[in-house]
């Protein structure tokens, strides 16, 4: 073997048998090559051009960045494709975490042409026309918010979706709260924000993400309610004005978070969703209150009637009966010993 042919072999042996520093160097160059390759491929695969039909009759040409369950729509073409893909991956993981907990899927956006209409959630970036049908899983964010999200992704932030997007995506699962049996009676503040807050927190926990603090005075709302002897279900939660609705939605959130904490059950939110889906449509106060107490009791595997009674909720005898049925374990269908006794062998 010539000297020139032995040189590459010697270099290869040195790399294979070298020090840890050599191995670290190899990993560094391998990771750098992989990053460059992924970035180059991403540059070759830009977002797809799609048509947007607005409720105002206007047509727009947008760029769709498509994930498995979530799509991002933007008019901008200066986005970093690799960061956008990582953001979509995070959104897809979060959406699946929400779906795993509550077990249902938001409706698709019927105003979009082609396969984009089959996305579970569409995040529209920029000033796009309003929806003609409000019952669609569509979330609007501004260009600055999108830049902030991409910055979170670039920094590998433990809160990759920021402070607002987790709640917005979770709200799409609670949008049809009447189908969950969770709708409040006419004239009362909706429960959807409280359900979404609960779902967002559990979904982030399941992904080991940090849920940013809620700016609302959650604890102060429930503590103030408990201290006020005149406060009751109707006075505190009836939707009398825009300002009062915000206070009422904060109180709803505090009530659900408090019952979650009382329960100590890791699957509280999943069981709450499942039970609410089995509850009747809340057409009056008695049914609405009953659905909430039944569902939270079933989710916590305990009788929460004393808790809601202390909160001065109107509790009927029918609700008390429903709660006891919800928390009573189902009797196992066990066969008697005689049924399990072996049959005598037949003589052949």
Quick rundown:
With 348 residues, the protein is of the alpha/beta class.
What does this structure look like?
- The structure is a single chain.
- With about 350 residues, this protein is of the alpha/beta class.
- The protein has a five-stranded mixed beta sheet with strand order 1-2-3-4-5.
- It has 14 helices and five strands.
- It is elongated.
- The chain starts with a helix and ends in an 8-residue tail after the last helix.
- Strand 2 and strand 3 (about 70-75) form a beta hairpin.
Annotate the secondary structure layout:
Elements: H1 3-17, H2 20-44, E1 48-53, E2 59-66, E3 70-74, H3 81-102, E4 121-125, E5 138-141, H4 143-154, H5 165-173, H6 192-206, H7 218-227, H8 233-237, H9 242-263, H10 268-278, H11 285-300, H12 305-310, H13 317-327, H14 337-340
Helix pairs in contact: 3-4, 3-5, 3-6, 5-6, 6-9, 7-9, 9-11, 10-11, 11-13
Which structural class do you get from the secondary structure elements?
alpha/beta
Mean pLDDT: 77
Query: How many individual helices?
Result: 14
Give the biggest beta sheet: 5 strands, mixed
Q: Which strand order does the major sheet show? A: 1-2-3-4-5
Keywords:
5-stranded mixed beta sheet; 348 residues
